[in-house]
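Recap from last week: sequence in, structure out.
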Amino acid sequence: MSQPVSISVEFADLFRGVVPRVREAVEQILASQRLEGLTLTREIVADTLGYATGELSEAEYDRRAARWTVTEHG
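Predicted structure tokens:
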């Protein structure tokens, strides 16, 4: 059985320039969401990184995350 590809490798361009501590935290968050059944998209990864780096406010991140849920569950 092969090892799954790291999220930061799968979306390498989005993680470019992100400090290791933030990268690791975001990878853990996204891996947990993936295990919960969320299909990770480029948008979800970018938004999560944006929140973790302070580019998105908590309110904006929550608004976008609510949209992922609607998209995932129709």
